[in-house]
Write a structure and sequence with these properties.
The chain is mainly alpha-helical and 427 residues long. The chain has one domain: MFS general substrate transporter like domains (Growth Hormone, Chain: A). The protein is built from 16 helices and two strands. Strands 1-2 form a two-stranded antiparallel ribbon. Helix 1 packs parallel to helix 7, helix 1 runs antiparallel to helix 8 and helix 3 packs across helix 4. The longest helix has 30 residues. The radius of gyration is 21 Å and the shape is globular.
């Protein structure tokens, strides 16, 4: 085994603190993806249009700030840059928690989202470049799967406990207490993050965005790959909160039930992150991309057919789990592929550009869905056979059609990962 492929004690220490850091620090992002923030916004009496806007706004801010922060971070110590980001996320969730106490709620919510999103952007801009030297190439896919599996496990257990609490009391005060617990988790991220050593001390580089974009455009396969990821994200990323709005606004499910369905989605994430890394290391990313592409379409097509099933609640629970699994497996493949095709001297810029396109796709999808619903372009009630459907179901079916049309774009994926022997590693 080559020296570069050896997992050293320093590597193990860095990976361990990375897992601990994300286990607590990702509670904020999971709050959006799992559905807790949707429940909170609904408790604040926001309309469906406002909920979709606020759920999409973080991705909008991330989309337009990641690459500038990646360029800016090249001029400073990346670890300190990430620490500033952590504290901005803490401030953001403090704003979320105190919003009900203020006379105006719109501007505090905007401030909360902007602080949280900018902090997340600063942290993400340097995260993979900080980790990259500690991850041997043969173990990278597996570790990324382990990393996501662990923090999703923590998130699932946390929000499962929250769903049990909401069964007994779903008052606004309880939701605020949960937000304060999330804030504490975000602060805990700092306590672990500061122990991750910088294996390669960065040399300050003065780059501008134009030069950064030129570097990426000249990187073989990166632009084509990023185009596919953007299109895939555009037509799949809005699905979780479309599911949530159907469950809350159309099916009129209780908060605890919606939260539990979100837990099932997170459980699907767990399975996807656990399996995804191993499948990638064994077969490469192309297998994962192709399987997930078609499975995304199947899940979205089946959700509007819930009324035909004898146990609709069980059925949509399975679909939530399935979507979570697909999202996790594909996101592991996305990150792994990006790290392999990115210019090795500009990892932060490359991964930030990749995440920028992903977040732009997420925000555009969310804003587009909100605008369509707000304008009343789609019928609020229609029939699939003898079963009622909604405008949200129409959006899901539209996404399915686009996924089918995008099959041709699978050829944009470089899939340069070669099957290699893996090394076991335990936390």
């Amino acid at each position: 085994m080559k020296k570069a492929d050896t997992i050293t004690p320093a590597n193990k220490k860095a990976m361990t603190f990375a897992v601990l850091s994300q286990s607590f620090g990702m509670l904020g992002q999971v709050a959006f993806s799992q559905g807790f923030m949707l429940i909170y916004f609904n408790a604040l009496k926001l309309s469906a249009f406002e909920i979709m806007i606020f759920m999409s706004l973080p991705y909008f801010v991330l989309g337009f700030s990641l690459l500038p922060f990646a360029v800016l971070s090249a001029r400073y110590q990346r670890k300190q840059f990430g620490i500033i980001g952590i504290f901005l996320t803490v401030i953001g969730f403090c704003f979320f928690a105190v919003t009900p106490l203020l006379s105006s709620r719109f501007f505090p919510l905007i401030a909360a989202i902007v602080f949280f999103s900018l902090g997340t952007s600063m942290f993400n801009a340097v995260w993979f470049e900080l980790l990259h030297p500690h991850l041997p190439a043969h173990y990278r896919g597996r570790f990324l799967g382990i990393l996501r599996f662990v923090w999703q496990s923590v998130g699932m257990l946390f929000y499962f406990a929250v769903s049990i609490i909401l069964m007994h009391n779903s008052s606004l005060v309880i939701l605020q207490i949960v937000l304060l617990l999330i804030t504490a988790g975000l602060f805990s991220r700092f306590l672990f993050y500061r122990n991750i050593t910088e294996a390669n001390k960065p040399v300050p580089r003065f780059l501008n965005i134009g030069k950064a974009v030129k570097i990426l455009v000249q990187s073989k396969g990166f632009v084509e790959y990023a185009a596919y990821i953007f299109l895939l994200t555009l037509f799949t990323s809005a699905v979780p909160f479309i599911f949530g709005l159907i469950e809350k606004k159309i099916m009129l499910l209780n908060d605890d039930t919606v939260s539990f369905l979100g837990v099932l989605l997170t459980a699907g994430n767990l399975s996807g992150y656990f399996l995804g890394g191993r499948i990638i290391d064994r077969f490469g990313t192309k297998t994962v991309f192709i399987a997930c592409h078609f499975a995304y379409g199947a899940v979205m097509l089946l959700f509007p057919l819930r009324g035909f099933m004898p146990f609709p609640l069980v059925f949509i629970g399975i679909l939530n789990f399935s979507y979570g699994l697909l999202f996790a497996a594909s996101s592991t493949a996305i990150t792994t592929e990006a790290l392999f095709i990115a210019p090795q001297s500009h990892i932060a810029i490359a991964t930030s550009a990749n995440d920028t396109l992903i977040n732009c796709g997420r925000s555009i999808a969310g804003f587009l869905c909100a605008w369509i619903v707000k304008c009343g372009m789609l019928s609020n009630s229609w029939k699939i056979g003898k079963t009622s459907a909604s405008a949200y179901d129409t959006i899901l079916i539209s996404f399915v059609i686009m996924i089918i049309l995008l099959v041709i774009t699978l050829g944009l994926i470089p899939s340069v990962i070669i099957r290699k022997k893996t090394v076991s590693f335990r936390y």
